[in-house]
Structures are given as C-alpha cells and as structure tokens.
Write a structure and sequence with these properties.
Length: about 350
C-alpha cells in the first residue's frame, strides 16, 4: 500500500505531475529546451518574488548550497545555524577549504538580527548564510529582518539563504529582503520528486564570485549563470529533462492556485497540527512568530515510540517522521507542505489519535 508522506520531503506528488516526468526526451541544445527552461525561470521568478536570474541544477538542494558557499565567499563566511541543516552549510565550507565560522542558536531559538549584527561588526565576513526554515527544529528565521539589517549597516555583505523546505509554502520576498542567493529543492513545498535544485542569484553575487579563484566546476554558480545568459537558458551539462517537464507543469498548477491561496492553505494546515500538538504534547519552538509553516516539530513529552506509531500508521497508509540530528530522540515531525489539504491533515491526525488513544 502507498503511504502518504507526511515527512518533510520527499512529499507525495500529484498523479498528473508524475505523468509529466514520463514525457519523451528533447535535445538539450535545442530551441525547445531553451523555451522550456526560460518558461520555468519566468514562473519561478514569481514564486521567489525576484527579478534576479533563476538557475537550475541537476542535484538536490545540497548541491547548490555547497556550490554557493564555495562560489561566493571571497574573505570569510559567517554561517548561522539553528539546527542540522545550518550545520551542514558549515561542514560544506570546511570540506571545500572555504574560511568560515559557525554561529549556533540554542535548539528551538532563531537566528536573530542581533546575532548577525554582533558577528558582522567584527568586519571579518563578506558573506552570511541563514536557514529560512530549519527542517530539524521546525523553526522559521526572520530572514526579512536580517535582510533589513544588512541593507542598513552591511550593504556589501552577501546574503545566502536556504529556503529548501519552505519555498512555495510561505511567502519569501527574495528581492525585498535583499537575498543574493536563495536556494530550494523540488521535493519539499514545491511538490515534485527530488533531483533538482533551484536558486535565484543577484548580479552582485556573480561579480563577487568572479573574484573567487577556485569555484569547482559542476557546481560553479558563476559558470551556470554565464552559460544560461550566453546560451538562452541552457546549462553546461545535460539537465534532468524529466524534472524540467514536471516543474514547468507544476508551476502552472501553483500559479493557478494562487500564491496567496497556497500560503493560506499551508498556514491553515500548520495551525491545525500545532493546536493538536499543544494539546497532546508540546512544541519545540516556543515563540509563535518563529514557527514553521511547512512542518511542525513536536516534543515527544509522552515518550511514545515513534517507530511503533509509524508501523501502525503504515498499515493505514501514512508516514510521519522521527526527529533529526541532535533532536532525533526528543522530537517527532509532521510535515504539512506542497499539495496536501486540511482534510488530509485532519485524516492523518485522527488516525494518530486513534492509534495512541488520545
Ligand atoms: C531537505 C533540506 C536540505 C537538503 O536538501 P536536499 O535537497 O535533500 O539536498 C537543506 N536544507 C533544508 C532546510 C532542508 O529541509
């Protein structure tokens, strides 16, 4: 039996979107390929609220995260982490010999503009990374507030953001917030299979990147950008065309639903799960404004066996997620992103209630 995935990626993909993956191939150096990739970029600019160039990478989101920190750090990166995915950006920097320092928040607490201000006031850094929506902790960082601080006090510092688990589920105003590189993946709130990463990139980031000597090759974001500009949206290597066909189609679905409607649906699902979690357990994140809209991280205060719960849920056609990283045994997670509806979330929760006798 298929298990409906209420894990924070991959998520279920709509049947008509899945069918698009089976589209017959086209030559990747044809006008058709350019037109397809141009169409995707234009639609993504709406979802990202940006006029910046959109780039696609045949890798998962981690590929562009690694490519970005390596391509754009000239002096030193300040990596802000509120959990496992923030930590990953620091590990990527280290593995690539990119000078970086890690600034960690306590579990359940955000990256604040004050923390960023303190780090940047040293003058040591020319780039920062922030996780918009940390998928281990279920926390959403105040990226807009951090962007406002950068504009006011540190206009030359590049701003890299990981929006992997939130883009398409909550409004992220890339340009208004001054985000230079905004990165996401297909398999989370966008509702597609894993295998393609997407970013927007500012011109000034590209100019900064040109000063970096060793940017790698496959994930050199400056090279991706130059190729897209020179070859009308084509890429240096063969891209995953199945993802392109499905992405183009899914973006139509998303824009047809309406971005504001989509965000409202995510909020409604999030509020339902939070209310249930507060009644029966507790939330890891205490402050309302930092709660993720796309997944909820629940403190396992009843010390239930999440493994046993998932076994019983599987018999009923559902799957939720255990904790991640340092929070593995302390929390469990329910995602509510992409194309699920409030009714589907209610169905999941009533099954959990039934199994746990809540
Ligand atoms: C899933 C996730 C990643 C990693 O993305 P992949 O597509 O699996 O490489 C990075 N950051 C966050 C916040 C995520 O949720």
């Amino acid at each position: 039996m298929h298990k409906k995935l209420f894990i924070p990626g991959p998520v279920d993909v709509k049947e008509d979107v899945l069918q698009k993956l089976a589209t017959q191939q086209i030559g990747h150096r044809t006008k058709e390929a350019s037109a397809l990739q141009r169409s995707i970029s234009e639609k993504l600019q709406k979802v990202f609220y940006t006029d910046n160039q959109i780039l696609l990478s045949t890798s998962s989101g981690s590929g562009l995260m690694e490519g970005a920190i390596r391509s754009f750090t000239r002096k030193r990166a300040a990596v802000f982490s509120v959990g496992a995915f923030g930590d990953r950006w620091y590990k990527m920097a280290k593995a690539n010999n990119v000078p970086a320092d890690l600034f960690k928040s306590e579990p359940g607490y955000p990256t604040t503009p004050e923390m960023v201000d303190e780090a940047l006031s040293t003058g040591k850094y020319d780039l920062i990374t922030v996780t918009h929506n940390e998928t281990s902790a279920g926390i959403m960082n105040p990226v807009g507030e951090i962007g406002a601080l950068l504009k006011e006090k540190y206009p030359d510092v590049l701003f890299l953001v990981d929006s992997v688990s939130s883009m398409g589920g909550v409004k992220i105003e890339t340009d208004a917030w001054g985000v230079d590189v905004n990165i996401t993946s297909t398999q989370k709130a966008l509702g597609l299979p894993a295998g393609m990463a997407i970013c927007s990139v500012s011109e000034r980031a590209i100019e900064a990147g040109r000063q970096v000597e060793f940017r790698g090759l496959y994930l050199d974001i400056v090279d991706l950008y130059d190729t897209v500009k020179k070859k009308d949206h084509q890429y240096p290597s063969t891209p995953s065309l199945p993802h392109m066909f499905a992405l183009d189609y899914q973006l139509d679905r998303i824009l047809e639903e309406g971005l504001e409607n989509r965000y409202a649906r995510h909020k409604e699902m999030a509020e339902y799960v939070r209310a249930w979690a507060r009644k029966n357990f507790a939330l890891l994140v205490k402050e309302e404004k930092y709660l993720s809209q796309t997944l909820t991280t629940i403190m396992n205060t009843k010390e239930i066996s999440v493994g046993d719960l998932n076994k019983k849920l599987a018999e009923r056609g559902f799957m939720i997620s255990n904790g991640y990283g340092d929070l593995k045994d302390l929390t469990f997670r329910i995602s509510h992103m992409a194309d699920y509806t409030l009714d589907e979330v209610k169905d999941l929760i009533s099954n959990i209630d039934d199994i746990l006798g809540l």
